[in-house]
Write a structure and sequence with these properties.
mainly alpha
Length: about 200
């Protein structure tokens, strides 16, 4: 609660003093986002002796603060956090809490939109999320529910966008197929059948 209150104070100060063009401080904002993600992904919040209601409340409070700050950034500032913040945000969306995932996955679409408006593509975002997803799933994060939510939420957002409908859907399907293969590979990694392991490896490649 103490850390959450502090993070809340930092968020208010960043929005009041360091958001406009003349006073924008990239390093301060960068530090804030890394702090918020580090708080939300710390192991002590995942302990079994926390009730699910208490854990969900803390996680959702922290998530709404991060959302508030990301969505308050204007395009010319937001683009400065792509691709560097894709990995930390991915780590946050992978926390096994359904409501938190529903609230944070839309941040990806916001990033896609931001890069598209700046460069007419979202190549940096796409490359980064594919690279980081590989690392995170291999490290034990991610599950079938995450794959389903990622697919559903991002497709809904992309299909409503005039220019991202087609390329966005292609990207989402690509990531979902990759996730399927990575999850299969992780499951079968310790299988004694070498052919099964090799088959999964080929699929991932």
């Amino acid at each position: 609660r103490v850390f959450l209150r502090a993070i809340n104070q930092y968020a208010d100060m960043l929005n009041k003093k360091f958001l406009d063009q003349t006073n924008f401080e990239l390093q301060l904002w960068n530090n804030y986002f890394h702090l918020a993600v580090a708080f939300l992904t710390q192991e002590s919040l995942q302990l079994e002796n926390f009730s699910s209601a208490k854990r969900a409340k803390i996680l959702n409070n922290g998530c709404s603060l991060t959302q508030k700050c990301i969505f308050s950034l204007k395009g010319q500032h937001k683009i400065k956090f792509i691709p560097e913040m894709v990995g930390p945000i991915l780590e946050m969306t992978l926390i096994p809490e359904t409501e938190l995932r529903k609230a944070t996955i839309p941040i990806f679409f916001d990033m896609m939109q931001c890069e598209f408006h700046s460069t007419r593509s979202f190549q940096m975002f796409e490359n980064e999320i594919i690279t980081k997803l590989d690392h995170e799933v291999e490290g034990g994060r991610g599950d079938e529910q995450y794959k389903v939510l990622f697919d559903k939420i991002l497709l809904e957002h992309c299909r409503k966008h005039k220019y991202l409908a087609k390329s966005g859907e292609t990207f989402v399907k690509l990531v979902v197929r990759l996730m399927e293969r990575l999850l299969d590979y992780r499951t079968i990694m310790h299988d004694e059948n070498k052919e099964n392991r090799m088959s999964c490896t080929v699929n991932v490649l």
